[in-house]
Structures are given as structure tokens and as C-alpha cells.
Amino acid sequence: MFLKLKNCHNIKDFRKLAKQRIPSPLFHYIDGGSDDEFTLNRNTEAFNKCSLIPNVLAGIKKVDLSCTLFGTKMDMPFFFSPTAMQRLFHHDGEKAVARVADREGLMVGVSTIGTVSIEELANITKCPKIFQLYIHKDKALTYDLINRVKAANYNAIALTVDTVVGGNRERDLYTGMTTPPKLTLKSLLSFVAHPEWTLNYIFRKKFELAQVKDYIKQGSDITSSIVDYINDQMEPSVSWDDAKDAIKKWNGPFALKGIASVEDAKKAVDIGATAIMISNHGGRQLDGSVSPFDILPEIVDAVGDKLEIILDGGIRRGTHILKALSLGAKACSGGRIYLYALAGGGEKGVQRIVTKLKEELNRDMMLMGCDSIKKLNKKNIKFI
């Protein structure tokens, strides 16, 4: 059945819309994980291990969803996690997402492997921004990116620490996913079946990795997978000293993205990080690894009073965010939740998923009998 944007009411609907609107290799790039995709599925299933405990007759007239993260206020305890290559999914890419963030008072993540430049996004949007940094083999490239982000007045940097090698993303192998997409016998039918996407890709601005195009050939001429880019360009021997060095060079709010153990959370404190994003890269790296929600309570108990903790991964509902906040997360972030919407409906799609999520959070807080997310705590949770 042909699905329309106005009939999308939850992430499952937006997923169907994305599958309908973009070629198969691109959809499966968004949708897939590594190996058997156990961790991909566990990231969301983990929220079912506990229940919310509501209180009634609370006399609530208005709910306060605002929070402060990296020293800046957000109108909702959720932000757009940085994701790569957004213009592959819709021709507006990061610009569409950032414009929604502007309107909704949210933070937007911008990736090193992004398709709209650091500077262009800074010029066209005022929303808070966090830049996702990778340590490249070319350290000069890495440090220059930090300087560019600083010059563009971004609010924070998140260093991704869980991609020393690319994960085994078998769906991409089966579909022949490359960046940019190559026309092959296998992909031809999918491109023909999605003429709107195909025409936009051919006739609009050329696809490129805007942050790195002036440094390396792969920035503007990639004929391999994103995993190949990671393996070719990223520093596999990246260490805690490298992270500490990046923190010093930035000298501002700094998160480590990809922390999934108490031991590493403590090390993040030791080297001067101001935040951690508990994440397993959306189940796209080490399959069988712990889900962010499963490890959240232990990390909060260990370092929750020493830095800001963000839960990244598996968010599909407002109740998932409330559970994470109740267990001590400062905020949540996610990628697929808005990439499906971007692929399916561009800026209007992203706006609709954010509106739906905000409606869920307000309604769920009313039903919880709680007028501020700051009042959420472990007493709201019962483990099954």
C-alpha cells in the first residue's frame, strides 16, 4: 500500500515510507546493522526490561521538557545524533534537519562524513550544533577540522571512539551499497523504481563529503563503501592520549561517543571529557555488544555526578526517553529515528517525526503525573 507522510504516526510508519521512497541500497544502509543484527535489535528491545510507574491526580497543567546540555538550553531532552551522508537520503540532507532543529529548539549533530559543510550550516542555522569528530590517519586533517568547528562557533565536539575498523555490515555487501551509489545491474531496477530520488540525485548539487573533500580524494570521488572509507582513512590505533589531545585542542564541551563500559566512562572523566554518549553506533559495529540502555544504570552510578551522560541508540518512543532520563541520562539522541523521516519526506518528514515525539513526551509526562523531566528518577522505574 502506498503510504503518505500525513499517515505516518510512528517510526514504523516512517520506516515504511523511507523504504518506499529511496532505492534499496540506501534504505538498507540506514536500516541495517552488523553481522546478525542482534545488537541492532537489542538496542530497542532493552527498554522493555523495565516499566514506568505513574502517579495520578497530580494536577498538572503544563509540562516542562527543557534541559541544558553542553551549557546550552534545549526545548526537549532529545537531539539529532550526527549521521553520515544525509544528502544521499534526501537532496536537502543536513540542511533540512538543521532547519527543524532551529524551529524546535534542538541541537543538531554534524558528521565529519557529512554532505553539507561545517561553515554552510553555521551560516544558515542558529540552532546548537555538535560536531562528530573522527581521528584520521592524517592528524593535520583532524586538527584542522577542530579549528574549523571552533571558527564556526559550534557548541561542542563528540569524538567517535568505536570505529577503529568498520563493522561487518552484510546488508551493504548484498545490496552493493557504495558512496556515491554506482549504477549496476543489481541496483538498476531499484533506481528506476524511484524516479524522484534518481532525478534529484542526477540534476541537483553533486554529492560530496563536504568536510573532507579538500583534503582527500575520497571526499569527492568515492567508489567504495563507507566501511572502506573508515578502514582507509581512520586511525586504527587511536588511543586515550589522542582523545585527550583533541580535548585540549578544542578546549570546550567535549563528549566521547561510543562509550559502553564503566571502565571507559571513568577514563573519559580522567582525560577531561565533559560528557559521554553511551552508544554502540546503532548496532553497526560490534554485534553482540551491550545495548546503551542495559549499561546505563551502571555508568550513571559510577560517573553520573562527574559528567553529562547521553543515551544514544534504540530510541523509538517518548517512553524510551522517559525511562532513560529516569535512570540518570541527561538527554537522549538518535539517528535512524530522523533518517527514516528525512528519506521519506525531507524537511517535512523530519518536522513531523519531531512533532510526534514531542506530543508523545508531553502526553506521557502527563500520564506519569510529572510536570518536569528534572523530577524523573529511579522511583519511576520497576525492573521486570
How do the strands and helices of this protein lay out in sequence?
Layout: H1 11-21, H2 24-31, H3 38-45, E1 50-52, E2 67-69, E3 72-74, E4 78-80, H4 94-104, E5 108-111, H5 118-124, E6 129-133, H6 139-151, E7 156-160, H7 170-175, H8 185-192, H9 195-203, H10 226-233, H11 240-250, E8 254-259, H12 262-270, E9 275-278, H13 292-303, E10 308-312, H14 318-326, E11 331-334, H15 336-368, E12 381-383
Parallel strand pairs: 4-11, 5-6, 6-7, 7-8, 8-9, 9-10, 10-11
Antiparallel strand pairs: 1-12, 2-3
Helix pairs in contact: 1-15, 4-15, 12-13, 14-15
Polypeptide structure, described:
The protein has one domain (5-383): Aldolase class I (TIM Barrel). The chain has an eight-stranded parallel sheet. It starts with 10 loop residues before the first helix and ends with a strand. It has helices at 11-21, 24-31, 38-45, 94-104, 118-124, 139-151, 170-175, 185-192, 195-203, 226-233, 240-250, 262-270, 292-303, 318-326, 336-368; strands at 50-52, 67-69, 72-74, 78-80, 108-111, 129-133, 156-160, 254-259, 275-278, 308-312, 331-334, 381-383. The longest helix has 33 residues, at 336-368. Helix 1 (11-21) packs antiparallel against helix 15 and helix 12 (262-270) packs across helix 13 (292-303). The protein is α/β, with parallel strands linked by helices and 384 residues long.
